[in-house]
Every structure is written in C-alpha cells, then in structure tokens.
C-alpha cells in the first residue's frame, strides 16, 4: 500500500513539473516505427555533406593577421575593386584581433594619394591581399652620356 502511494505521488510529481511536450516524447518515443527505415533527418544530413560549403570571406584584419607587422606596408583591396588598393600605414587593433581601424595610402591606377586616410569598410568581408600591385615607376629621361 505504501509502495502504491509512493508510485502515485512520483507520477503526479512528474506530470506537474515536466512540460507537456516532454511527456509526449517519453510516451511515444519508446516504440520504434518498423515501417520507416531511414528518418527524414538522416537524408538531410547526407545531402548537406555532399554539398560544398561556401568559403567565408575575410575582413581586412583577418587578411593581414598572418602578414609581418600586421600588414603595414602591404597592399590590400576589396575583391570587387579594379586598379584601386590601399597600402596600409597604420592599424589600431581591438583586443579580439578581428576588429579595429586602419589607415593607408590609396593607390589608383598605380599612383598614390598625397596623404594617408582612414580606410572605410574594414569590417566588411571582401578584402584580399595584392601580391604585386601596379606601380608606375617614375621614369627619368635618359641623360646623354659623355664619352
């Protein structure tokens, strides 16, 4: 009799304390369905594993973090720019290493701007490293050689 009372109080405690959805899960999840050989969740995981994931683009700080001296002196550009780049002159990096501010010389068609300016859009995920920027060398006229 005492055992029956204890079971009844334990059952009523469960019904009072647990959410209704959880009780449904306990009641109906114990009997497997013999007709379904594969669950719908297993087909979605196999489809997602065959699809290639898109590579996440990087912001300016994620690009320069592997360069010496955090990319100061190197050329960076947004991926959709043509013939425009920045030569990094100064970086103010926040503690997390992925955010901050940057300044640089703007290069357009290989010609630098007169003074460094703050680079806008440094947190946007579209930056790339320019290995060999177009630099127009100042050509001096050939002086006649006296022999």
Folded structure, characterized:
The model is unreliable at 136-141 (pLDDT under 50). The chain is 28% helix and 21% strand. Strand 2 (84-93) and strand 3 (100-108) form a beta hairpin. By secondary structure, the chain is an alpha+beta fold. The protein has four helices and six strands, in the order ααααββββββ. It has helices at residues 2-17, 20-28, 40-50, 60-64; strands at 75-78, 84-93, 100-108, 111-112, 117-118, 127-130. Strands 1, 2, 3, 4, 5 and 6 form a six-stranded antiparallel β-sheet that branches. The relative contact order is 0.13. It starts with a helix and ends in a 17-residue tail after the last strand. The radius of gyration is 32 Å and the shape is elongated.
Helix % is: 25-40%
Mean pLDDT: 75
Count of helical stretches: 4
Low-confidence stretches: 136-141
| Main sheet properties | 6 strands, antiparallel
- The SSE string, one letter per element, is HHHHEEEEEE
Instruction: Please tally the β strands and state the result.
Output: 6
Structural class based on helices, strands and sheet pairing: alpha+beta
Radius of gyration based on Cα positions = 32 Å
Distance between the ends? 125 Å
Envelope shape: elongated
Beta fraction: 15-25%
Summarize the structure.
The protein has 147 residues and is an alpha+beta fold. The protein has helices at residues 2-17, 20-28, 40-50, 60-64; strands at residues 75-78, 84-93, 100-108, 111-112, 117-118, 127-130.
